[in-house]
Amino acid sequence: MKIVVAKSAGFCFGVQRAVDLVMNAVEKYEGQKIYTYGPIIHNETVVEDLKSRGVIIMEEDKDPADYEKGIVIIRSHGVSRAVMDRIREGGHEIIDATCPFVSKIHRLASEHSAKGERIILLGDKDHPEIRGIIGWINGDGYDVIKTREEAESYVADSTDKIILLSQTTFNLHKFQELVEILTQKGYDINALNTICNATEERQEEAARIAGEVDVMFVIGGRNSSNSQKLYEICKQRCSGTYFIQTKDDFDLSVLQSVYNVGITAGASTPVNIIEEVTKKCQR
What we know:
Blueprint: E1 2-5, H1 13-28, E2 33-37, H2 44-52, E3 56-58, E4 70-74, H3 81-89, E5 93-96, H4 100-114, E6 118-122, H5 128-134, E7 142-145, H6 148-152, E8 161-166, H7 172-183, E9 188-191, H8 197-210, E10 215-219, H9 225-237, E11 241-244, E12 260-265, H10 271-281
Parallel strand pairs: 1-12, 2-3, 2-4, 4-5, 6-7, 6-8, 8-9, 10-11, 10-12
Helix pairs in contact: 4-5, 8-9
């Protein structure tokens, strides 16, 4: 049986940077309270490992001032400007682990909305990255669109100048589809593709591998947006696609009479989990 592991599988730059910042803080600020604002990344295994090292998750629905003063590390998905202010007002020191690609979108949203331009965000309105971006928009001149149906029914003021941005992990082909739908409405739209390069490469490689194998495994956390999108992409090209978190989430029986297996993983999946899944497939 041939096993093909995507070269792009595993931690992306932003996730690796965030995890490294937490680990460095644990060593540098020994004896102090170390918090992450929400889970630092969307991977339960990584989050549990950090908890075992004494890292505490600061709950989003609680006042930062209610926590003992310490070091608060902003998650890779980023947070709103208001959240940053509340953390500082609570007496904490901040280490910003926001992915640089997400920080760029914060700047664009802030700058363009300050000029009176309307912001359209392509993504999931309930995802922490989108919630964070919204928190950098000046005023309420914005909309969030996720589906083709939402794009087709979208109506804006014909005089609006619109800047279109996307969640960094948005599906590239869906981005192109929705931009085309919105552009055909005749609005003055400047569409900026803010999907990160790593996401594009990961999606394209996953699609290619899925089209060449009998079984495809997509490894990722259940709350990982980019992992879910990889699953959707792979499922379209390989009916035998499985979404798993660890090697314990599938039975070897699915590999019976299988000649080719593909493996990819979301940007928050540690390399050791990918290796464990690969070894199990080799049995």
